[in-house]
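[Meeting: bench + compute handoff]

Bench side (C.D.) handed over the final construct sequence. Compute side (W.E.) agreed to return the predicted structure before the next meeting so the bench team could plan truncations. Sequence as handed over:
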Amino acid sequence: MPAISPAPFVKVPKPPPGRSRLSAALEGHVQNEPPAEPPGFTVTVTEETVTVVLSGELDITSADFLTSRLAHVRRERPRRLIFDTARVTFIDCASARLIAETDDWLPPGVKPVIACPAPIVRRVFQASGLGARCQLEPCGWR
C-alpha cells in the first residue's frame, strides 16, 4: 500500500454554528495554506539595555525563529532586557517560557521587562506563572 503524505499546511475554516473545528477537519473540510510569516522581531541596543519589539503570532511554528533571534540578543550581554509586546496577537506557553528564561542571562535580581503587554500576553504570563520571572509593565511605564 503506498504511503499517503499529508498536506504540509492545513487551515481548518471556521465551522458553522453548532459544529467544532475538529469535526470540520475530520470531515475533510480543510484548506491548504502556506505558513504564516515569522513574527516581527526588532532589536535596539543602547548602552546596557536591549529592547526587543515583538509582533505577530508567537507559537510552535515560530519557536525556532524566536530561539535563534534570542541567541543573538544573548551575545549582546544585556544588563537590562525589555520586550515590547504591544503588537503580539498570539503567544503560546512555549514562547512565553523562552522569553521568561532570558532572566538566566541577566545580573542577579534583574528580571526581563515585558513592556506594554497585549492582553493575550498578560494572560499567558500570569496564568502560566511565568510572570513571576518577569516584570510586567503597563504601556508608558518608562
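W.E. noted at the follow-up: Confidence is low (pLDDT under 50) at residues 5-12. C.D. will use this when planning the next construct.
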